[in-house]
Amino acid sequence: MNLNQHYGEKSVLQKLDQLPKEPGLKRRKKIVFAVKTVFLSLLAAGFIGICLGLGVYGKIVADTPDVSEINIGPTKYASFVYDADGDQIQQLNEAQSNRIHVSIEDIPEDMQHAIVAIEDSRFYEHHGIDPQGILRAAVVTLTSGFQETEGASTITQQLIKNNVFTDWTDETFFQSVRRKIQEQQLAVDLEEYLTDQGLDAKSVILEEYLNTVNFGSGAYGIQTAAQTYFGKDSNDLTLSECAVLAATPQNPTRWDPRQNPEGNAQRRETVLNYMLEQGWITKEEQEEALGDDVYARIAQNSENQPQGSTYSYFIDELISQVQEDLVEEKGYTETQAANAIYSGGLRIYSTQDTEIQDIMEEEFEDEDNYPDYVRFGLDWALTVEHSDGSKENYSREMLTAYFENGGEVVPDLFDTQEEAQRYIDRYKEAVLEEGDKIAAERTEFVPQPQAAMTVIDQSTGYVRGIVGGRGEKKASLTLNRASDTYRQPGSAFKILAAYGPALDLGEITLAAHIEDEEYSYEDGTPIRNSDNRYHGSVSVRQAIRSSYNIPAVKVLTDITPEKGFEYLQQLGFSNLDEELDVIQPLALGGITNGVSNLELTAAYGAIANGGTYMEPVFYTEVTDQEGNVLLSNKPQGQRVFKESTAFLLTSAMEDVVSEGTGTGFQLEDMHVAGKTGTANDYRDLTFAGYTPYYTAAIWAGYDEPQELAESHRTFHRTLWRNVMNRIHEDLPNKDFEQPSTVERAAVCADSGLLAGRGCTRVYEYFDQDNMPQETCTEHRRSLFPGWNSGQEEEDDSSGDSSGNSSSGSSWWDYWSRWWR
Q: How many beta carbons lie within 10 A of that of residue 49, not counting itself?
């Protein structure tokens, strides 16, 4: 036997290989292999993931906005309006834009330290982000089992989130991650950038942060918060007050010191404790602050603070003008212009004389200035939310249609507010169904008749005061009847469309005579005077004084309606119709669309200003927060009438007030010139008048044109007199200045020619280039002396401007003339 064959090494190995393998060992090998495979796969995946993550992170960082191009300041600030004396009269802002910027020098150090202590204790040590804060926040989150979280954002990061990444409230998770990465990168870049610019980075960031954050109760920014809660400026805040405010921004609703003083007090104590721990205050200062009854002052200031401010009619129109000019002159869109006004931090310097505006508002709110019999218009709207969540709107027009469809007429005006309310209640009962809820309702009972008035400084065009309605103004940006409504001017147009142009062109003089006789328009329509009479040959002065219609139409016809229309366009009337209004009735204010009270005031202001039209303006300048001028309103005068024409019109219109149709508008101790206007059927009553100081026009009537009762046709006189008497109370009475181009001469009262022997003389003013050249010869006395004995000629120096002097001729005068 060969032992090697059976028991040799090779044989043994072969036999071992032929033996069956153990199952457990095989599984272990497989497991080890699988683990190695998974590990290597995970390692590879992790490596790939890290590479991808770094790539994505790098891409996000690369897409971070350039720090030199971002604006870290808040974009919404309150705008302010100042009156003609530079006093602040109105703050304009929308929600979240009532900030008033203050520099870091006007923010107490206690306020700065308080906000740092509670929001970012390492603010002065880190460089934009705080790794220690991030680690601390992570530990708190992990150790609490994700039940508690702690903010790790620095003040720098919060500033960037609020003013750069402003859409963070609507982010998805991935957008939030992206924003957070860029926010951290920008925080580091910002502090480095500000330092490189030679600025104190921490002061700049803290200033912008404190001007940005929400301090509760709708107060954005530290200055607004100080005024809202304590009625003082930010630089006057005490330590206790600073702690109250610093306690608020992290949750302005929860820690609002007005709404939740107890919660704010607890957090204020935390602020003071942190300030003490961080070395910003002493123990004594902390105890003194904690002992301050600050919340009583907050409550008291809240009671004394007005809860809202309704814009005046002046502010309404001012906003309209500024918005229009931003669009036209600066190229803003309507939205951009509105945003600039309400949240752009503008400084608007208005032309308002606050004393005049106050006087006007007082008189227009005084019911004693109106007729005893008051009726009411109804302005009503309703929004209903149905049970299915849909909403439906109802209006005054729908209410009227509902009742009219049922055969019941709803009056335009109601005798009482209760009567109007009954119609509302009946209509609501008809349209409301089970399950409906009233989402909103507006009801306003508008007293009638109404009135509106504007006062302008004619030398500049500056509007000093404007009121667009009767009674107390209850809402902002409402209907302004002085600027928004267009009504018929009636006879007030005679001066502007007929007599003014004719005098200016040298076609008539105040002494010229016109036959007031039966007369018709070119289409055959007869023209009548208001008294339904004809007055024969009348002078232009007399026609103006008594407001005769026929002479005015004859004058316009002679110069042509086209020429009168040209003058009206130069006088600023924007709503005239070039196709329909170039007609003879233009002389009497018979126009298609009417004119606004503001326009009429400015047109008469041109006469008061020596013939130079000044566009009415409500502001002189608009600047941004830094004082850069955005808009400037420098008076731009346009000569419409010669200076002599303006004086001649003024002289005639003084007669209107002293002895003509406008006697009810006389002032106590001041020269006044003006012209009345009455539309057909007394639907609109107008008076435009002026003194050497101010021009003012008033309108009275119903919002829905209808005839004014006879007892309602004089109240506008009371309003105009009361306002103007008070405005001129301390002003010296002075006459209108006569230009050197005007001369005074004696003329025949009957012919308007230079007075001859035997004429009844009157003294009249003339443009020196349009003086009468002929002497009247129609009134020479008989050559028989006895027929005219005893008459003596009056001296030429006697008489007055309105022409009340007369003269005769002596017997010797006529005999001598005959003998020669």
A: 11
Spatial distance between the Cα atoms of 757 and 753, rounded to a whole number of angstroms: 12
Per residue, the 3-state secondary structure of 496-544, as one string, reads HHHHHHHHHCCCCCCCCEEEECCEECCCCCEECCCCCCCCEEEEHHHHH
Lowest mean pLDDT among 119-133, 658-672, 735-749: 119-133
Report whether 240 contacts 294 (CB < 8 A): yes
Which residues are within 8 A (CB) of 781 and not within 5 positions of it... i.e. 6 or more apart? 757, 758, 787, 788, 808, 809, 814
Average pLDDT over residues 477-503: 96
What is d(CA 362, CA 473) in angstroms, rounded to the nearest whole number?
A: 11
Global pTM value: 0.78
Q: Any idea what the Cα angle at residue 311 is, between residues 308 and 317, rounded to 5°?
A: 160
97-106, 138-147, 382-391, 408-417: lowest mean pLDDT where? 138-147
Q: Which residues contact 627 (CB under 8 A, 6 or more apart)?
A: 347
Predicted local distance difference test score (pLDDT) of residue 219: 87
Nearest CA to 560 among 587, 580, 520, 523? 587
- Please give the span between the terminal C-alpha atoms of the chain, in angstroms, as a whole number: 198
Cα maximum dimension of the chain: 201
Q: pLDDT at position 95, please? A: 65
* Crossing angle (nearest 10°) for helices 283-290 and 239-246: 80
Does residue 237 contact residue 110 with C-beta atoms inside 8 Å?
yes
Of 203, 163, 170, nearest in space to 76 by CA:
163
Residues facing 373 on adjacent strands: none
CA 97 from centroid of its chain's CA atoms: 17
Tokens of 296: 């009583």
User: Is the pLDDT confidence value at 790 over 50?
Assistant: no
- DSSP helix/strand/coil, 698: strand
What integer is the mean pLDDT of 415-443?
Answer: 93
91: phi then psi, degrees, rounded to nearest 5? -105, 130
Give me the mean pLDDT over the 539-556 stretch.
Answer: 98
DSSP, residue by residue, 14-80? HHHHHSPPPHHHHHHHHHHHHHHHHHHHHHHHHHHHHHHHHHHHHHHHHTSPPTTT---S-S-B-EE
Best CA proximity match to 601, nearest among 465, 744, 432 = 465
Give the amino acid at 799: G
Q: Which two tokens stand for residue 816?
A: 């001598």
The sign of the CA dihedral 151, 155, 158, 162 is: positive
Angle, alpha carbons 315-322-609 (nearest 5°) = 80
Beta strand 79-82 with 347-350 is parallel
The three-state (H, E, C) secondary structure of 224-249, written as one string? HHHHHHHCCCHHHCCHHHHHHHHCCC
Distance (Å, whole) CA 419 – CA 416? 5
- Under 8 Å between Cβ of 353 and 334: no
The structure tokens listed for 513 are: 């005579």
Query: What are the tokens at 243?
Result: 């702690």
pLDDT of 147 higher than 70: no
Q: Which of 704, 319, 300, 662 is nearest to 481 (CA)?
A: 704
Write the CA distances from 696 to 197, 452, 675, 771, integer angstroms.
56, 11, 11, 32
Copy the structure tokens of residue 804.
Answer: 């009340």
Q: Report which secondary-structure segment, H or E, holds 614.
A: strand 612-614
In three-state secondary structure terms, 646 is helix
Task: Provide the residue type at 641 as one letter.
Answer: F
463 touches 352 (CB < 8 A)? yes
CB 686 within 8 A of CB 678: yes
Amino acid at 154: T
Confidence of residue 803 (pLDDT cuts 50, 70, 90): very low
